[in-house]
Amino acid sequence: MMALTPLPAALDSLFQQVPSAPTSEHEALSQCLWRVLAEPIVAGIDVPGFDNSAMDGYAVRAAELPGPLPVSQRIPAGVAPRPLERGSVARIFTGAVLPEGADTVVMQEDVLDKDGQLTLLGSITEGQHIRRRAADICSGAEILPAGRVLTPQDIGLAASVGCATLPVRRPLRVAVLATGDELATPGEHREDWQIYNSNAAQIGAQITAMGMQAVSFSSLPDDPLIIGDALERAAAQVDCIITCGGVSVGEEDHVRGQIEARGTLTLWKLAIKPGKPLAFGQVAGCPVFGLPGNPVAAWTTFALVVRPWLAKAQGANLPNPRRLQVRADFEVNRAGSREEYLRVNVLEGQPRVAQKTPDQSSGVLSGVCQAQGLAVIPIGVTVRRGDLVDVILMTELLSPLVA
Question: Which of 4, 176, 216, 402 is in the most buried spot, having the most CB atoms within 10 Å?
Fold first, then answer.
């Protein structure tokens, strides 16, 4: 009997089997959200490109204050100013170019205007309220590294140095195949003995959320020849295949056998709960993940195993999911032989508390919808109420890939 593989060892092995990242392509900024940057972006200009005012107020020479001094010019943003006349101030607005000769900006609330003559109220610090040239970005600096998953602010940063397009990785194409005679397609007639195919929908949605292309295949019956042929057809069209169901040890579980018969199988059975019957291998050179058929187990193994693998295959540099330490408002009385992931809600307070959702069955997907995170119970550990436990928030597992 093949031994169960602990999750860290499984991930180490899988990461060694990540193929080269897909080719790059230049895309308009509007098309780059959540895409993976293929090359570092280096600024060709300073940002800002000139000293400018951080306030609506007056550009002055600090040594000439407190005044009174007349206003010699008005400088809105987008206008090239004249040098500041000696013995005068310039009316200036936020973002406007600081005129030559000025060394300070005084807020309009801090001056008294009497008959066109301005007098300082209070004190100032020379150089205040000025945004200096290159204070944000220096020309020649790397502003975005290769492998970064582009966020809205990243796209804004690229625009600030004049980029109209960015070199990004082609999105991976990932096939989703669900197997089982019991499956019916949502929206179509369902026999009393059938269930609707939720796994293909949820796994496809997670792939799409990662910025990749989910290629959906219809549900497959529990027929080894049909399953094997579908694997080979998909392998010719996509970068990776994800199956749901058919990887356990039942007489109608044919996916694992077909991966082995038509390619290679390098991983089977994880030491986690839910999600033990996970398979990984290749068919016709295409990586294949065989996920469990129970919807919670499929969701969990995708989040913990497939998602980080796909991120690396896409060329993204991502940290491990962050964990919170919170107090358990539940007990685990028997030490398990598998690392367990319990669906929990986190109650804010001093201290924060984790409560289990009502039903922890691997077939109850509503429990995942209700939960805010997964409490991690290590192998061989029991938990008493009040003990500290690690919790991975759902936002770490479901949000778009963010470096």
Answer: 176
